[in-house]
């Protein structure tokens, strides 16, 4: 479908060479809307100048632009000229390879910002400290994405700013009223109040839970999916929940989840192969994950038959149902395998093992004969 010109038409060897409209040619000679559906490919042009899905050749790149240059690197890497360079090991994501160039951290680590920029250092999560030292935390009552943050400072005139107790001389004017008991009662404009502290929607952890602060108050106007702020207190919805009334009462589920049939207050994951399903039935698929096709509200692996009129294609990694739902799936991408059916990754691992064994054997034989010669 969508083929404009093809080679050897109306034969078993027919292959599309150019697609209609905005569709692009896949490596298997099919036409598709959006090459992003093929992991690791981008919409470019082939040698003949026709629209085609091309493999992104930049190592550790998540998304390439139409010129084949990397737009977005994988987590743990950052753009460095035409390549993706490795972040410092302390960072989850970063803007550069330095320890203070982190833009996000792994769970149990908190991003400590340096200056007015959006980068910083990943430091251990909040731990309560007894005593009245400046910049220390009395209570770590805020938890976001697996990391604990400060909810009250030891020094009464201090308060948590972006989850960290900051000395009065070092913090910005984010608290409108004078802090008391280590918390802020009213935050300044542009900040929202959460669990005793003041937070920005442009920095972590605030931007994880709030997309926009209210103009005329210190509340969160637009909470992020999975969170709710009730009079400045953060409520984390249950797993898979998009909006909730309380932690135990989910109103709507996130994509990839559906209401639990035995407990409608909770969400459960869609069945394997489904990226989206019926809001009230996790077994009824509406959108399939990569490597699966939709047939009668079920997601079937591209190399498997649906038990009816659709058949799979061996080693197919991305597909869609055939026209009129009869015959083999339209396969967009074939997994890279050899004649034995092993993937290139498995072959590489076997090759390394063979080299190690052979190298060890050669070394032993050399040692043996040298020793024998001396004897």
From TrEMBL:
The chain crosses the membrane at residues 350-370. Signal peptide: none annotated. It holds the Pfam family VSP. InterPro entries: EGF (IPR000742), Furin_repeat (IPR006212), Giardia_VSA (IPR052798), Giardia_VSP (IPR005127), Growth_fac_rcpt_cys_sf (IPR009030). Keywords: Membrane, Transmembrane, Transmembrane helix. PANTHER family: CABRIOLET.-RELATED, EGF-LIKE DOMAIN-CONTAINING PROTEIN. This is Variant-specific surface protein.
């Amino acid at each position: 479908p969508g083929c404009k010109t093809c080679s050897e038409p109306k034969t078993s060897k027919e292959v599309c060479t150019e697609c209609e409209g905005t569709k692009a040619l896949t490596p298997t000679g099919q036409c598709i809307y959006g090459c992003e559906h093929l992991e690791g490919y981008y919409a470019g042009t082939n040698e003949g100048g026709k629209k085609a899905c091309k493999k992104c050749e930049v190592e550790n790149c998540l998304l390439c632009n139409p010129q084949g240059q990397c737009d977005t690197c994988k987590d743990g890497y950052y753009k460095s000229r035409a390549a993706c360079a490795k972040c410092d090991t302390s960072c989850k994501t970063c803007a550069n390879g330095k320890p203070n160039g982190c833009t996000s951290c792994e769970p149990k680590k908190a991003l400590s910002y340096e200056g007015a920029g959006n980068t910083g250092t990943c430091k251990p999560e909040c731990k309560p400290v007894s005593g009245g030292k400046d910049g220390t935390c009395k209570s770590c009552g805020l938890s976001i994405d697996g990391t604990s943050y400060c909810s009250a400072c030891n020094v009464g005139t201090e308060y948590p700013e972006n989850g960290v107790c900051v000395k009065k001389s070092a913090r910005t004017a984010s608290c409108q009223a004078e802090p008391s008991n280590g918390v802020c009662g009213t935050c300044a404009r542009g900040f929202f109040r959460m669990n005793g502290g003041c937070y920005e929607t442009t920095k972590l952890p605030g931007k994880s839970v709030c997309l926009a602060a209210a103009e005329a108050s210190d509340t969160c106007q637009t909470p992020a999916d999975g969170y709710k702020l009730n009079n400045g207190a953060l409520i984390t919805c249950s797993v898979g929940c998009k909006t909730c009334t309380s932690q135990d009462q989910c109103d709507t589920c996130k994509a990839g989840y559906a209401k639990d049939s035995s407990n409608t207050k909770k969400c459960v994951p869609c069945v394997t192969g489904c990226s989206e399903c019926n809001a009230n039935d996790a077994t009824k698929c509406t959108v399939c994950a990569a490597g699966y096709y939709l047939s009668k509200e079920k997601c079937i692996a591209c190399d498997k038959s649906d038990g009816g009129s659709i058949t799979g294609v061996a080693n197919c990694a991305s597909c869609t149902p055939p026209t009129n739902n009869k015959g083999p799936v339209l396969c967009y991408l074939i997994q890279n395998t050899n004649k034995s059916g092993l993937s290139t990754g498995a072959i590489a691992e076997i090759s390394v093992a063979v080299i190690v064994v052979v190298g060890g054997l050669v070394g032993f034989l050399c040692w043996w004969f040298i020793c024998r010669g001396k004897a």
